[in-house]
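Structure in, sequence out. Go:
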């Protein structure tokens, strides 16, 4: 057998086909339900209550009329703040006199207040309607 005949005999012996399958997916949109959304605005009249704090300072002038060597500092005694008031007087020499003190007392009052206010609130209503699947196919 010649070389050419041997090649032919080998090629005619057996062929094995190779097969490959592929899958393809197709999609379509289908309505399954309808949704209706309604909103409404509700207003509610309310009265807001709170307490307001007010601070008032009462001033009492206390005469002292005493000579001092230096200016006294501002000081506190209980709930009273004492502020010295000074003046210089001409005497044969200059001297410092404490003329008076201001006694400051804080008084706190609380007063209730009522203010009308309008508060808004949105209400949402959702309605769903199922569609028959057979109608859409």
């Amino acid at each position: 057998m010649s070389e050419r005949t041997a090649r032919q005999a080998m090629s005619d012996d057996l062929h094995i086909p190779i097969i490959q399958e592929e899958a393809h997916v197709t999609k379509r949109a289908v309505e399954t339900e309808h949704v209706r959304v309604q909103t409404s605005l509700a207003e509610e009249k309310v009265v807001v209550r709170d307490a307001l704090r007010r601070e008032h300072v009462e001033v009492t002038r206390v005469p002292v009329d005493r000579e001092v060597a230096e200016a006294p500092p501002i000081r506190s005694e209980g709930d009273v703040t004492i502020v010295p008031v000074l003046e210089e007087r001409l005497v044969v020499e200059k001297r410092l006199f404490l003329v008076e003190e201001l006694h400051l007392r804080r008084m706190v009052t609380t007063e209730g207040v009522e203010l009308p206010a309008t508060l808004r609130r949105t209400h949402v209503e959702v309605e769903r309607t199922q569609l028959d699947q057979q109608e859409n196919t």
